[in-house]
Amino acid sequence: MEDFKDKVVWITGASSGIGEALAHAFARQGSRLVLSARRKAELERVKGQCKLTDDRGLVLPLDLTQFEEMEAKTAEVMQHFGRIDLLINNGGISQRSRVVDTDLEVYRRLMEVNYLGTVAISQAVLKVFLKQGGGQFGVISSLMGKFASPMRSGYCAAKHALHGFFDALRLEYESDGVEVCLICPGFIRTDVSKNALTADGSAQNSMDEATGKGMSAEDCAQQILRALGKKQFEVLIGGKETLAAYIKRFFPKMLHRIVKRASVT
Protein backbone atom coordinates (compact mmCIF):
# COMPACT_ATOMS: atom_id res chain seq x y z
CA MET A 1 0.00 0.00 0.00
CA GLU A 2 1.28 3.47 -0.90
CA ASP A 3 2.76 5.68 1.80
CA PHE A 4 1.43 9.26 1.68
CA LYS A 5 4.30 10.79 3.65
CA ASP A 6 5.39 14.07 2.04
CA LYS A 7 2.85 13.65 -0.78
CA VAL A 8 1.07 16.84 -1.80
CA VAL A 9 -2.65 16.20 -1.27
CA TRP A 10 -5.26 18.77 -2.33
CA ILE A 11 -8.67 18.31 -0.65
CA THR A 12 -11.79 20.20 -1.69
CA GLY A 13 -14.61 20.52 0.83
CA ALA A 14 -11.96 20.36 3.55
CA SER A 15 -13.77 22.59 6.05
CA SER A 16 -16.09 19.91 7.45
CA GLY A 17 -17.34 16.34 7.27
CA ILE A 18 -15.42 13.78 5.24
CA GLY A 19 -13.04 16.43 3.90
CA GLU A 20 -12.04 17.57 7.38
CA ALA A 21 -11.61 13.96 8.53
CA LEU A 22 -9.42 13.28 5.50
CA ALA A 23 -7.27 16.31 6.31
CA HIS A 24 -6.57 14.91 9.78
CA ALA A 25 -5.91 11.41 8.41
CA PHE A 26 -3.43 12.62 5.78
CA ALA A 27 -1.76 14.98 8.28
CA ARG A 28 -1.11 12.01 10.57
CA GLN A 29 0.56 10.31 7.60
CA GLY A 30 2.90 13.26 7.14
CA SER A 31 1.34 14.55 3.93
CA ARG A 32 1.61 18.12 2.74
CA LEU A 33 -1.93 19.47 2.41
CA VAL A 34 -3.86 22.00 0.37
CA LEU A 35 -7.17 22.72 2.11
CA SER A 36 -9.95 24.20 -0.04
CA ALA A 37 -13.57 25.18 0.57
CA ARG A 38 -15.48 28.47 0.58
CA ARG A 39 -15.07 29.27 4.30
CA LYS A 40 -11.52 30.47 4.93
CA ALA A 41 -11.94 30.71 8.71
CA GLU A 42 -13.00 27.06 8.91
CA LEU A 43 -10.07 26.02 6.74
CA GLU A 44 -7.69 27.88 9.06
CA ARG A 45 -9.27 26.04 11.99
CA VAL A 46 -8.70 22.67 10.29
CA LYS A 47 -5.12 23.62 9.44
CA GLY A 48 -4.47 24.55 13.06
CA GLN A 49 -6.03 21.40 14.45
CA CYS A 50 -3.95 19.33 12.03
CA LYS A 51 -0.86 21.17 13.35
CA LEU A 52 0.25 22.10 9.84
CA THR A 53 2.97 24.71 9.50
CA ASP A 54 2.88 27.04 6.51
CA ASP A 55 5.42 24.93 4.65
CA ARG A 56 3.25 21.81 5.18
CA GLY A 57 -0.23 23.24 4.76
CA LEU A 58 -1.81 25.77 2.37
CA VAL A 59 -5.26 27.25 2.95
CA LEU A 60 -6.72 27.98 -0.48
CA PRO A 61 -10.35 29.20 -0.44
CA LEU A 62 -12.26 27.97 -3.45
CA ASP A 63 -15.80 28.09 -4.86
CA LEU A 64 -16.42 25.14 -7.17
CA THR A 65 -18.89 27.17 -9.24
CA GLN A 66 -16.15 29.62 -10.25
CA PHE A 67 -14.87 27.42 -13.07
CA GLU A 68 -12.68 30.12 -14.58
CA GLU A 69 -10.55 30.31 -11.39
CA MET A 70 -9.38 26.68 -11.39
CA GLU A 71 -6.28 27.22 -13.54
CA ALA A 72 -5.15 30.10 -11.30
CA LYS A 73 -5.87 28.16 -8.11
CA THR A 74 -3.83 25.23 -9.45
CA ALA A 75 -0.99 27.62 -10.25
CA GLU A 76 -1.05 28.82 -6.61
CA VAL A 77 -0.65 25.25 -5.40
CA MET A 78 2.23 24.67 -7.80
CA GLN A 79 3.93 27.89 -6.69
CA HIS A 80 3.67 26.80 -3.05
CA PHE A 81 4.56 23.10 -3.31
CA GLY A 82 5.95 22.58 -6.83
CA ARG A 83 3.80 19.50 -7.49
CA ILE A 84 0.45 17.81 -6.80
CA ASP A 85 0.33 14.09 -6.07
CA LEU A 86 -3.33 13.60 -5.22
CA LEU A 87 -6.50 15.62 -5.74
CA ILE A 88 -9.42 14.62 -3.52
CA ASN A 89 -12.60 15.86 -5.21
CA ASN A 90 -14.75 15.98 -2.09
CA GLY A 91 -16.63 19.29 -2.29
CA GLY A 92 -20.33 18.93 -2.97
CA ILE A 93 -23.92 19.42 -1.86
CA SER A 94 -26.93 17.10 -1.57
CA GLN A 95 -30.66 17.48 -2.23
CA ARG A 96 -34.00 16.65 -0.60
CA SER A 97 -36.94 17.46 -2.91
CA ARG A 98 -39.37 15.80 -5.30
CA VAL A 99 -38.85 16.27 -9.04
CA VAL A 100 -42.11 18.08 -9.75
CA ASP A 101 -41.45 20.64 -6.99
CA THR A 102 -37.77 21.39 -7.69
CA ASP A 103 -36.74 24.69 -9.24
CA LEU A 104 -34.54 24.33 -12.31
CA GLU A 105 -31.99 26.57 -10.62
CA VAL A 106 -31.60 23.93 -7.89
CA TYR A 107 -30.73 21.35 -10.54
CA ARG A 108 -28.31 23.82 -12.11
CA ARG A 109 -26.55 24.42 -8.80
CA LEU A 110 -26.31 20.69 -8.03
CA MET A 111 -24.68 20.04 -11.41
CA GLU A 112 -22.38 23.06 -11.16
CA VAL A 113 -21.08 22.19 -7.70
CA ASN A 114 -21.07 18.40 -7.79
CA TYR A 115 -20.15 17.77 -11.42
CA LEU A 116 -18.95 20.74 -13.50
CA GLY A 117 -16.84 22.24 -10.69
CA THR A 118 -15.18 18.89 -10.16
CA VAL A 119 -14.56 18.58 -13.91
CA ALA A 120 -13.07 22.08 -14.07
CA ILE A 121 -10.60 21.60 -11.21
CA SER A 122 -9.71 18.10 -12.44
CA GLN A 123 -8.94 19.38 -15.94
CA ALA A 124 -6.54 21.95 -14.47
CA VAL A 125 -4.83 19.38 -12.22
CA LEU A 126 -4.69 16.78 -15.01
CA LYS A 127 -2.37 19.09 -16.95
CA VAL A 128 -0.03 19.06 -13.94
CA PHE A 129 -0.20 15.28 -13.67
CA LEU A 130 0.70 14.87 -17.34
CA LYS A 131 3.69 17.23 -17.04
CA GLN A 132 5.05 15.54 -13.91
CA GLY A 133 4.46 12.00 -15.14
CA GLY A 134 1.50 10.97 -13.03
CA GLY A 135 -0.85 11.62 -10.14
CA GLN A 136 -4.06 10.35 -8.57
CA PHE A 137 -7.65 11.53 -8.45
CA GLY A 138 -9.75 10.50 -5.45
CA VAL A 139 -13.37 11.22 -6.37
CA ILE A 140 -15.88 11.28 -3.52
CA SER A 141 -18.99 10.15 -5.34
CA SER A 142 -21.76 8.36 -3.41
CA LEU A 143 -23.75 5.17 -3.44
CA MET A 144 -26.19 7.48 -5.24
CA GLY A 145 -23.70 7.33 -8.13
CA LYS A 146 -24.52 3.61 -8.41
CA PHE A 147 -28.30 3.64 -7.88
CA ALA A 148 -31.02 6.16 -7.08
CA SER A 149 -33.31 7.20 -4.25
CA PRO A 150 -36.38 9.45 -4.04
CA MET A 151 -35.84 13.11 -3.13
CA ARG A 152 -32.33 13.16 -4.63
CA SER A 153 -32.87 13.25 -8.41
CA GLY A 154 -30.39 16.06 -9.15
CA TYR A 155 -27.83 14.75 -6.68
CA CYS A 156 -28.06 11.25 -8.19
CA ALA A 157 -27.71 12.67 -11.69
CA ALA A 158 -24.55 14.58 -10.78
CA LYS A 159 -22.97 11.60 -9.02
CA HIS A 160 -23.79 9.26 -11.92
CA ALA A 161 -22.15 11.82 -14.23
CA LEU A 162 -18.95 11.74 -12.17
CA HIS A 163 -18.64 8.00 -12.76
CA GLY A 164 -18.96 8.38 -16.52
CA PHE A 165 -16.46 11.23 -16.67
CA PHE A 166 -13.76 9.68 -14.48
CA ASP A 167 -14.07 6.20 -15.98
CA ALA A 168 -13.41 7.84 -19.36
CA LEU A 169 -10.56 9.94 -17.97
CA ARG A 170 -8.91 6.82 -16.53
CA LEU A 171 -9.13 5.07 -19.90
CA GLU A 172 -7.55 8.03 -21.67
CA TYR A 173 -4.67 8.72 -19.26
CA GLU A 174 -3.88 5.55 -17.31
CA SER A 175 -0.87 4.94 -19.58
CA ASP A 176 0.41 8.40 -18.56
CA GLY A 177 0.51 7.43 -14.89
CA VAL A 178 -2.84 9.01 -13.99
CA GLU A 179 -4.91 6.97 -11.52
CA VAL A 180 -8.54 7.31 -10.50
CA CYS A 181 -10.31 5.97 -7.42
CA LEU A 182 -14.09 6.43 -7.34
CA ILE A 183 -15.23 6.47 -3.70
CA CYS A 184 -18.89 5.75 -2.95
CA PRO A 185 -19.89 6.44 0.66
CA GLY A 186 -23.29 5.48 2.00
CA PHE A 187 -24.64 6.92 5.24
CA ILE A 188 -21.83 8.93 6.86
CA ARG A 189 -22.45 11.01 9.98
CA THR A 190 -21.86 14.53 8.62
CA ASP A 191 -23.96 17.65 8.01
CA VAL A 192 -24.66 16.61 4.40
CA SER A 193 -28.41 16.24 5.02
CA LYS A 194 -28.61 19.49 7.00
CA ASN A 195 -27.00 21.39 4.11
CA ALA A 196 -29.02 19.58 1.41
CA LEU A 197 -30.97 21.82 -0.98
CA THR A 198 -34.75 21.68 -0.86
CA ALA A 199 -37.11 22.48 -3.76
CA ASP A 200 -36.58 26.24 -3.60
CA GLY A 201 -32.82 26.07 -2.99
CA SER A 202 -32.91 26.64 0.77
CA ALA A 203 -31.11 24.25 3.12
CA GLN A 204 -33.04 21.40 4.73
CA ASN A 205 -31.54 22.25 8.16
CA SER A 206 -32.33 18.86 9.66
CA MET A 207 -30.47 15.57 10.05
CA ASP A 208 -31.80 12.51 8.23
CA GLU A 209 -32.28 9.59 10.62
CA ALA A 210 -30.13 7.21 8.56
CA THR A 211 -27.36 9.80 8.21
CA GLY A 212 -27.37 10.44 11.96
CA LYS A 213 -26.89 6.71 12.59
CA GLY A 214 -24.27 6.32 9.88
CA MET A 215 -20.53 5.61 9.96
CA SER A 216 -18.33 8.30 11.48
CA ALA A 217 -16.45 10.58 9.10
CA GLU A 218 -13.21 9.47 10.76
CA ASP A 219 -13.83 5.78 10.01
CA CYS A 220 -14.86 6.69 6.48
CA ALA A 221 -11.62 8.65 6.00
CA GLN A 222 -9.53 5.67 7.10
CA GLN A 223 -11.25 3.43 4.55
CA ILE A 224 -10.71 6.04 1.85
CA LEU A 225 -6.98 6.20 2.62
CA ARG A 226 -6.73 2.42 2.36
CA ALA A 227 -8.52 2.40 -0.99
CA LEU A 228 -6.30 5.17 -2.36
CA GLY A 229 -3.19 3.47 -1.07
CA LYS A 230 -4.18 0.21 -2.75
CA LYS A 231 -4.92 2.05 -6.04
CA GLN A 232 -8.47 0.69 -6.11
CA PHE A 233 -10.63 1.66 -9.10
CA GLU A 234 -13.75 1.95 -6.95
CA VAL A 235 -14.74 1.41 -3.33
CA LEU A 236 -18.10 1.25 -1.53
CA ILE A 237 -18.05 2.55 2.05
CA GLY A 238 -20.76 2.21 4.69
CA GLY A 239 -22.94 -0.42 6.29
CA LYS A 240 -25.58 -2.73 4.88
CA GLU A 241 -26.68 0.00 2.45
CA THR A 242 -23.66 -0.86 0.29
CA LEU A 243 -25.38 -4.15 -0.64
CA ALA A 244 -27.83 -2.13 -2.72
CA ALA A 245 -25.14 -1.48 -5.32
CA TYR A 246 -24.84 -5.22 -5.97
CA ILE A 247 -28.60 -5.73 -5.97
CA LYS A 248 -28.90 -2.91 -8.51
CA ARG A 249 -26.38 -4.60 -10.78
CA PHE A 250 -27.90 -8.06 -10.77
CA PHE A 251 -31.53 -7.51 -9.72
CA PRO A 252 -32.49 -3.91 -10.59
CA LYS A 253 -36.24 -4.44 -10.30
CA MET A 254 -35.80 -5.96 -6.84
CA LEU A 255 -33.85 -2.90 -5.68
CA HIS A 256 -36.55 -0.65 -7.12
CA ARG A 257 -39.15 -2.41 -4.97
CA ILE A 258 -36.93 -2.30 -1.86
CA VAL A 259 -36.19 1.42 -2.15
CA LYS A 260 -39.79 2.25 -2.99
CA ARG A 261 -40.95 0.59 0.24
CA ALA A 262 -38.24 2.23 2.37
CA SER A 263 -38.84 5.31 4.46
CA VAL A 264 -36.76 7.96 2.68
CA THR A 265 -36.14 11.49 3.91
Give the secondary structure arrangement, pairings included.
Blueprint: E1 8-12, H1 17-28, E2 32-36, H2 40-49, E3 57-59, H3 70-81, E4 86-89, H4 104-132, E5 135-140, H5 153-173, E6 178-185, E7 188-189, H6 209-212, E8 215-216, H7 217-229, E9 234-237, H8 243-250, H9 252-261
Parallel strand pairs: 1-2, 1-4, 2-3, 4-5, 5-6, 6-9, 7-8
Helix pairs in contact: 1-7, 4-5, 8-9
Characterization of the model:
The chain has 265 residues and is α/β, with parallel strands linked by helices. The protein is 45% helix and 15% strand. It contains nine helices and nine strands. α1 crosses α7, α4 runs parallel beside α5 and α8 packs across α9. The longest helix has 29 residues, at 104-132. It is globular, with a radius of gyration of 18 Å.
Brief characterization of the structure:
By secondary structure, this protein is an alpha/beta fold.
Quick check: average pLDDT?
A: 96
Number of helices: 9
The oligomeric status of these chains comes to: single chain
Shape: globular
Largest sheet: 7 strands, parallel
Helical content band: 40-55%
Q: What's the arrangement of strands in the largest beta sheet?
A: 3-2-1-4-5-6-9
Poorly predicted sequence stretches spanning 5 or more consecutive residues: none
Strand tally is 9
User: CA-to-CA gap between the ends?
Assistant: 38 Å
Give the C-alpha Rg.
18 Å
Order of SSEs: EHEHEHEHEHEEHEHEHH
Q: Which structural class is indicated by helix and strand composition? A: alpha/beta
How much of the sequence is in beta strands? 5-15%
